[in-house]
Amino acid sequence: MLRKRVLPFGIAGAVVLAGIGVHSAFATPSADAVIAEVYGGGGNAGATYTNDFVELANSGAATLDLSDYSIQYLSGAPTATSKWQATPLTGSLAAGGRYLVGEAAGTGGSTALPAPDATGNIAMSGTSGTIALVQGADPLTCVTAADCAADSRVKDLVGYGTAVVHEGSGPAAGASNTASVARNATLTDTDDNAADFTAGDPTPQNAAGTGGSGPTSPPTTPPTTPPTSPPATVKIHDIQGDTRVSPYEGKAISGATGIVTGVRAYGSSQGFWFQDPHPDNDPRTSEGIYVYTSSTPTVSVGDSVSVAGTVSDYYPGGTTAGGQAVTEITKPTVTKISSGNPVPAPVVLDDKKVPDSFAPSAGGGSIESFPLRPSEYALDLYASLEGMNVQIGDSRVVGATDPYSELWVTVKPKQNPTKRGGTLYKGYDDPNSGRLMVQSLIPTSTSAFPTANVGDTLKGTTTGPLDYNQFGGTYALQARTLGTVKSGGIKPEVTAKASSDQATVATYNVENLAPDNPQSKFDALAKGLVTNLRSPDVVALEEIQDNDGAKDDGVVAADQTLTKLTAAIAAAGGPHYQWRGIDPVNDKDGGEPGGNIRQVFLFNPARVGFVDHAGGDSTTAVGITGKGDKTELTASPGRIAPNDPAWNSSRKPLAGEFTFRGKKLFVIANHFDSKGGDQGVDSRFQPPVRSSEVQRVRQAILEHDFVEQLEAADPKADVVVLGDLNDYQFSPAVYALTGNGKALTDLVNTLPVAERYSYVYEGNSQVLDHILVSPNLGKHVDYDVVHINSEFADQTSDHDPQVIRLKP
Questions:
Q1: What angle do CA 663, 668, 669 make, to 5 degrees?
Q2: By three-state DSSP, how is residue 547 classified?
């Protein structure tokens, strides 16, 4: 599953589905008070100002009494249960004047705001959110743009970043830790945030006229050689502090003492962890820390050391990735005091220690400045133990060993277990707090990293420093001692055999299949299709690459890829499949650059027929013609709305018309836009913003409308929509596609809850692949997710295939 860029969402009219909406225009633009500037990066890393702020302006000719108004904030990706936060206003806004509302502070920033005219404590997101100027102080209840537009209390509204709720064609772009979004100088309000606002340096100005041009230079020239403060002599817990970022960020320290608990002598992040054996009484302050040496450390576990250096809050993946900061000591001077000392006793992570609740909410803003509450939130507990020696006992594996020598366990065995031993991802508000990555500090020459499948048990004790993984963006136990694997016994599944009067239709993401892949991959895929799926009559394949794979040379045909696959299937005892597909325009469908991935239909001509209607190509939209049993596609195969911006840098749906025993069967193969750009569940922004969702919702609406037209032409039409939708069964995109279940039935919801998954990511068993059917098929379908890949260390693809048996 590759990650793609995201396109802004700009649908004309209003759409309200599954609690998420987009609206093209709000009520009549405000004739006086407007939101002039929004800045949510205050106090974040790299920020100039210490606080978030909202600035109002009055373009009218009369003073406006603000005593009955409030500024309100909503996260950029609200759900049906999201809440607005409100800051009541006081005083008035003079004609032609400004009014400054100061909001929450962070630990970053160097400059205070001009004296605010009103003060609140809303922790706004620096990159995505919605601000409203509201009559009254009661929080708004709308979570869609359409509903907010219909609320007469909203005087003005600004969505920024990737906010779903905004005015006009899109949200204001460019907000960051260092940039605000500000209305044009004439204060023109066209009810189009994207057009009315631009990003730039924050320029807060209050009613008294103070500010407005950003921080100024000191009035006098500083000395040629500024005085420097001597390094502070500190304990490790002083450096770590009681939040996610250090109060000593960027400062020189000395005299930090402790015992070395782990050494990383490989890769680009070489260094060591050490821990003070004499803790303070504050559970929020970690006693361990990482020392980044940049070369092979000269210390060993058990050494007592004193360290001087510079404190740095390091963001794996960069500050824009959204991950947690790791507090480190850089440019160190390390003094060894003694060797052979006992390592501080580990903190045991188990069901009792780790809270059920995952993370505090900041309405989509940063939680970095929040004091940690380790007894209430798992993410706070892990942050409070950052760099410390921790231990797990017998733990169930919930994410198989990957090629990077990582696996995932759960320390909360009763938390949402799947039927086969994983941990089920049930919703955005329940990301499973017991999941923990395990890596190893043990040299591979001494002991190979264990190979484990989901449902196995990592037995015994696994002990080492707790780190924040720089690639996965999540907390990881860096094992100094590692348990052993006991098999849970899961086996690849084989689906039930279909009866002769049942047509079988499957979907399978084959993960960037290209002719230069090893023959073993083709053979394994063939075995999965023939043995585990029992040679389906129709197969929708996703991620078929062109004839030279990732070589970016203009080649788009994929006949060599498909010839090699169908030959492997026949060699494995399967049918002689034929295929239908449409070559994409070069480099226009996303995926691996040069790979030109697309969906393709395989079909067994001995069992089903494919109805070829000429005219389908990469840029021509398929339509619907005829009525009742005469309903047909105008092109088969054909692509749905391939020129719509919803499909920019993304795969276009492939529609085909089949026949089985004289009855028509319409099949649509999909591979929706990926989750690239979304903030991770472990993000410092909580709840995380799902920016990629915007494009998938638009894609879903286009396809939903096509299916509705097909079903309107023939209410008895047999329609199967399937593929990798890159989203969950409870997501706004899937609700949009199904029309809340009216146009299509998502068959994954017919399974027992513990079996609803086709993909495992960071220890969460979740749904990305779907088979949906028209309402008349719902009672005549047997559905199966065939687990042959996602739970296993040895996998042919990262997705599990799915299959249905149906009687049209």
A1: 130
A2: coil
